[in-house]
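Justification of computing resources. Each target in the renewal requires a structure prediction run like the one illustrated here; the chain below, 460 residues long, is used simply to show the kind of job we budget for.
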Amino acid sequence: MTIQFGGLATGLDTSSIIDQLMNIERQPLTRLEADKTWLNNRLKAFTELDTRLKAFSDSIKDLNYRDTLLKRSTTLGSEEFITASASRDAVPGASYEVEVVSLARVQKSVSNGVASSSEALFGTGTLSLSVGEETHTIDIGEGENSLAGIMAAINKADVGVRAAIINDGTVNPDGSTTPFRMVLTGETVAKEFSLDVSGLTGGAASLDLGVPIQQATRAHIRVDSIDIYSDSNTLTEAIPGMTLDLRKAEVGATTNLAVNVDKAAIREAIEGFATGYNKVISFITSQSVINGEGGGVLGGDAGINAIKRRLQTMLTQPAENSGTLRALSQLGFETQKDGTLKVNEKTLGAAIDENLDSVVSLLAGEDGVEGVATRFKNYLFEMTSSGSGLLQGRKESITNNLKRIDTKVDAVQARLEQRQKTLEAQFSAMETLISGLNAQSSYLSQQMTAITNMMSGSKR
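Resulting structure tokens:
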């Protein structure tokens, strides 16, 4: 680092003079940096507006189509026996009585107990495990003929039955213990299995499954007294458009199942429209405010003002559907002084309850007629499209301007560095020159003094 002491010869604060001159030289750079800050703020605002417009578009997607708008909901008299969900194919207004006679179950069987799970108590040879209509042969060799070994061999075969060992703590009347049992569980509902151990020879103990502790059964329900069977406890075809999940069986116990249009979802979607709209309008307003301290970064942008006006116009523009409801105001949309929306809950509720078909036509349209929500969706896509949208164009333009400013800043900074070096060299040369002149002046002064003294001495 070079340390400079300015003005030693001249008595001037040359460092301060250079700083002041450089401050003047830096004014173009200061203006460029201010422009860059302003452009970055605009870019940030356009990006945020783009995000809000896309969020608004997402919030109304369920309002664009009749099928998604008319979602189905289910009402159950009790969820003790079944739960249910409905798709758009379910018939609104339909009601069913559902009785769960039996649940779909897998077979479970438990072997007789033995004294040890690890000792080679059984013979060697082959096991035959029949699962449904298929029979599988499992080899049991030396070292595998314990209860644990047979369990591992069955699981390794992977034939649709899983084996596990339990310890039930059995103590026999004679004091001996036989607590270890093998539990076989089928992996497929309603598919029976059996185990044949006749292929094992030798061994001190036998392996017997006995009667299954749980039979493999199909699900059996009655819908309005019609018997329906299934290999699963989830039924998707018993009632068109309905999915039934069976939870508990009890013969004679019925559950009422009703299908309705999900009016709460419609209300929520419409309120989401207002929320998304408000976030866009309030942001544009806040970024366009012009006051005594200057304007917002979007103030005066004709394109942004056009977006705001277009949204406000579409909000009040009547639809061309054939229903009795043809304006959003009839759904309770009320414009506030600040341009945002408020939804009158009473008006909206009455429209949904009393004129649902017209509500759907107003929002989603009908054959050949565009709905209000669809109108908004198309315009929002046009504004936010990555290829040709207005906001994308604005952001690209700002980005290009920022690149040009960065190039100018680099050039100005390089020039300023060179200018500072030039000024420092010039002032240093001036100091050197003045220092030399001062030395000559001192020398001449000394010579004049000497001459004067000599002349004064000769006169005496």
